[in-house]
Design goal:
Blueprint (H helix, E strand, L loop, with lengths): L1 H9 L3 E6 L2 E6 L1 H40 L10 H7 L1 E9 L2 E12 L3 H9 L1 H7 L3 E3 L6 E4 L4 E8 L3 E8 L2 E11 L5 E9 L3 H6 L2 H20 L9 H5 L1 H20 L4 H16 L1
Antiparallel strand pairs: 1-2, 3-4, 4-10, 5-6, 6-7, 7-8, 8-9, 9-10
Helix pairs in contact: 4-5, 7-9, 9-10
């Protein structure tokens, strides 16, 4: 101990004064503050990487627990619990001087906000449950989803929210994503898809995008629970099965209910929901 105290004293990090037969040491904060200022230049590099490492360690622990005690009664998804776990709403707001429809979907997942953020914002994790994503996944960057949309990241506030443009088929809409801790544990993902209503909306209603998000949320839930690859491409056979089609039909009914709750004519909403399910299931 005396050698350690000597090093601190000689380095200017501590002072010493005699008091009778005792020698009293006190820490000098000034040199430590200088070190802290110097280290601050590097924290922006290592802090995100250490956070990502901690997330991966926790994910590995969870996967080992699941291998030792796998979930019961799960094929690809437990259809009824997954359908019921999702909240679906329909609203409207002004966007660029025009009325826009807002399709909102949210679900709580059995993970923490940091892990959920990694799953939703890193190319490696997105490819496992959603689709291959390339580009510059940061504020102002352009992204591209294989076989789907592309756009620009317009807002990025880790690990709480991001927003982006959704450019597909010659049209532009907008996606806003919010992450938050759940009071009883876990983390919630809430997503708004904002679009100006066009002819497509009158034909298919909110389920046109809603069913796709239901599929994505189910895949994400399965990925977070097991660590498995659950994206549509690798599990296309399940979605084409009777069970997969049953999932889509059940989700279509929920989007019909959300459409009616949002003020749509029930008969028109029913027709739109049926057309959407037919388009998804063939």
């Amino acid at each position: 101990m005396s050698q350690h105290l000597k090093v601190l004293r000689e380095g200017g990090f501590a002072t010493v004064r005699p008091e009778g037969t005792r020698r009293l040491y006190a820490v000098r904060p000034e040199p430590l503050q200088d070190v802290d200022v110097w280290l601050d230049r590097f924290r922006r590099f290592w802090t995100p990487r250490l956070a990502a490492l901690a997330t991966e360690i926790e994910r590995g622990k969870r996967e080992r627990r699941l291998r030792a005690d796998p979930p019961r009664g799960v094929t690809m998804f437990d259809v009824d619990p997954q359908i019921s776990a999702v909240d679906r709403r329909l609203g409207s707001r002004e966007r660029d001087g025009r009325e826009a429809k807002v399709v909102t979907i949210s679900q709580a997942f059995d993970t923490d906000v940091e892990d959920l953020w990694q799953a939703c914002t890193t190319a490696e994790r997105l490819a496992r449950w959603f689709a291959p994503v390339s580009g510059d996944l940061r504020l102002g960057g352009r992204y591209r989803i294989e076989g789907n949309a592309e756009g620009t990241v317009e807002r990025c506030d880790p690990p709480e929210r991001f927003s982006l443009t959704w450019e597909f088929g010659g049209g532009v809409s907008w996606v806003e994503v919010r992450l938050s801790p759940e009071p009883g544990g876990g983390a919630r993902l809430e997503l708004d898809h904002i679009a100006h209503p066009e002819d497509h909306w009158a034909v298919y209603g909110p389920g046109a995008v809603g069913l796709g998000y239901d599929m994505a949320f189910a895949s994400l839930a399965r990925h977070l629970a097991t660590g498995e690859v659950t994206n549509d491409r690798d599990n296309a056979g399940w979605w084409a099965s009777d069970e997969g089609k049953g999932f889509l039909a059940a989700a279509g009914d929920r989007w019909y209910e959300a459409d009616v709750a949002g003020g749509a004519d029930p008969e028109s909403a029913r027709d739109a929901a049926d057309r959407t399910v037919e388009a998804y299931t063939g």
